Every structure is written in structure tokens, then in C-alpha cells.
Amino acid sequence: MAPHRLRDRVAQAAHHPVTARALKSGLAAGVSYLVGSTLPEPLDGYSYYAAMGAFTVVLPAVADSLKSALRTVLAILLGIAIAVGLQSITSTTWWVIALAVAIAVVAAALPVLHNEASWAPLVALFVLAFGGEDPQLFVLGYLTQVPLGAAIGITINVVLVPPLPVHDLEKALRGYRFALGSRLEELASALREKGERDLSPDLLSQVEVRRQQVATALDLNRRAHRGNPRSARFAALDQRLWTESRALHRCDLLGEAAGVLLDELGTTVSEELRRPLAETFEHLAARLRAPSAPEGEGEDAWPHRLSDDIASLHALSEQESVPVAQRHLVATLAYTVRDAARLLEGTRSRDAA
Q1: SS3 sequence, 128-160?
Q2: Is residue 313 a contact partner of residue 329, using CB atoms and an 8 Å limit?
């Protein structure tokens, strides 16, 4: 592997969100264990629970870290209550452990606990298995060390490069771009072949998967900005990515509308519409696959080319030789292409700036 490619791979790995989360999780666990070990005896013997509480709250969104800590404490209290309640009735046996875990799993199904629900049966099991006949000390260690570790984990997550999952969003948008580009190219080919070519369900499924990935990444990005001190520094990049997501959504709508056109009309699509629509889709697909202008072509070429395409579609929407229903549809497609092109050009302008 060439040295520059190796450097690029190393830089990419260093800036990957998993790398930052791994480093912060490890640091949070180590510091929590160290701090937990300084507590008075016998609480210092449960410092490993501080480490456990620390790394479980180092999450991609700062706001999620705080919510996770609160849910963890709630789940711990729930597990302790179940275990102590059963132990006050009878001694610890195999069926008591089975019953405690079963009750904790049911109780943990409360919507408020979310991903932290697994703490409830885990704590109930640990209290019964390791707490002995007098579990008060074990319970106190749990209630002291886990919240301590969670507090340290939240602090480290906020202070040391608070996470903003921009990398995940950029990756999702890149995959969405290429999937939409392939879909539009397929639609263009089908139009040129007079609707005799079947559209691939695999490409449509790929677009749907990529669309969902972008929606998930956008939601995570939105949550990551809450209470995050780094938000202001990334405002411009964040705006560009949100604009790009809107542009790709317009392209997605365009692909769906064109797919309906071919599915419903097939070979009856007006001959006057086929070539202009195919060229429009090809030009838009090329822009999706290559955000910057190809070598030897000016940056103004693509906007002008697509402007001509849109003007042709508007002109066709007014031609009486085209069936009325198809005229209305092509007018809708023209407006959708215009919005998508405007938003895509906005992302290119921000990149250039």
C-alpha cells in the first residue's frame, strides 16, 4: 500500500466516531475505577461497578448520555427492589433467581428504560448471587459506584471532544447519492428503450435502505446537537449536510414519480417526452455521482445544462400533442427537478466556499 494511502487510512480511522468513543469509554472506565477505589471501605471493593457505569453512558449524543445515566439508575433501583423483596420472603435458591430475573425482565419492559432495561435483571441476579443473606452492603456498593461512574462518564464525554456524528451522516448521504444516481440512470435507460426494460427491484430496495440510513443519521445528528458545546463550530457543515439531505429527498421523489410513470404508462409514454426526460435524469444522475465538475468542464456547465432540461420539460408540459395526463405529470417532474437542482447547487456553493 502506498504511503499516502496508508496515511489517509490512518487519518480516517483516527477521525472515525468509533475511535473517539472507544478512547473516551476506556478513559472513563479507568478513571471511574480509580476514583471508586478511593472511597471508604468496604465501598472501595466495588469500584469495578463504577467502571461499568462509566462506559455505558459514553454515547454518540451528549443528551443521550444524561438520559442513559438516569435510566440506568432507575433500572438499578428496580432490580434491587425485586431482589431484596424476594430475599426478604425466602432464601436464595435456583427458583428464586429464576423468578427474580423473570419479574425484572417484565418490569424492565417499561418504555421509560429503553436500552438500559437490561440493567434490571442483571442487578437482581447480582444482588441474589453475590449479596449473600445480608445484601445491604452489596446494594450500597451498587448504588454508590454505578452513579459515580456514570457521572464521570458523562463529564468525560462532554469535556473531551463532545461527539457530533457528522461522519455517519456524510457516509449515509454518500450511499444515498450513489443509489439515487443508479436509480435515475436506470429510469433514463428505460425511457430510451421505450419502457420495454423492466425496472430492477434491487435498485429500488437499495434506495429505500439508504433513505432509512440517512433518516437515522439525521435523527442522531439532531439529538447530538442538544447541549453540545461544539455545535456552533459545525453550524456551516451541519447546514450543508441538511441541505444535501433535502436535495436527495427531492431526487428520491423524482425517481418515485418517474417509476410510476413507467409502471402505469409503459410503452404508451409520449415519444416527445422520452428523450428530454431521459437526458434530464442522466444529467441529474451525473451530478449525484460526481458532486464536483468533471475535469475540463466549468462549474457553470451543469447548472446551465439542467436549466435547459427544465425549460424543455416546461415547454413540453404545454404542448397539445402530448396527452393531458402526461403533460401534468411532466410539469410536476420539472418542478421537482428544479428544486433538487437548486438544493444540490447550494451544497456545491458551500463546498466551494
Answers
A1: HHHCCCCCHHHHHHHHHHHHHHHHHHHHHHHHC
A2: no
Residue recorded with cell 463504577: 50
**Which residues fall within 8 angstroms of residue 93, CB to CB, at 6 or more apart?**
none
Residue 72 amino acid letter: T
Which residue type is seen at 210?
A: R
Peptide bond connecting 17 to the previous residue in cis, omega within 30 degrees of 0: no
Q: What is the distance between the alpha carbons of residues 66 and 68, in angstroms, rounded to a whole number?
A: 5
Euclidean distance between the first and final Cα of the chain, in Å?
33
Contact 70, 53 (CB under 8 A): no
* Cα angle, residue 82 at apex, residues 76 and 86 outer, rounded to 5°: 145
Distance of CA 272 to the CA centre of its chain: 42
Per-residue pLDDT tens for 122-173? 889 988 888 777 788 888 888 899 899 999 998 888 887 666 667 788 888 9
Q: Strand, coil or helix: what is 263?
A: helix
**What CATH topology corresponds to 166-352?**
Methane Monooxygenase Hydroxylase; Chain G, domain 1 (1.20.58)
Q: Say what angle helices 136-159 and 17-37 make with each other, to 10 degrees.
A: 140
Query: How many CB atoms are located within 10 Å of the residue 201 CB?
Result: 8
pTM: 0.63
Cα distances (Å, whole numbers) of residue 92 to 133, 173, 269: 8, 54, 76
More confidently predicted of 32 and 10: 32
Residue 290 φ then ψ, to 5°: -135, 90
Residue type (1 letter), 217: A
In the numeric block, the cell 427491484 is attached to 201
Helix axes 324-352, 301-316, angle to 10 degrees: 160
Closest of 274, 331, 340 to residue 306, by C-alpha: 340
Domain ranges of the chain: 19-159, 166-352
Q: Mean pLDDT across the stretch 183-208?
A: 78
C-alpha cell at 286: 451525473
Roughly what angle, to the nearest 10 degrees, separates helices 201-224 and 166-192? 150
Grid coordinates given for 39: 472511597
Query: Which residue carries 427537478 as its cell?
Result: 337
Q: Given a cut of 80, is residue 299 above it in pLDDT?
A: no
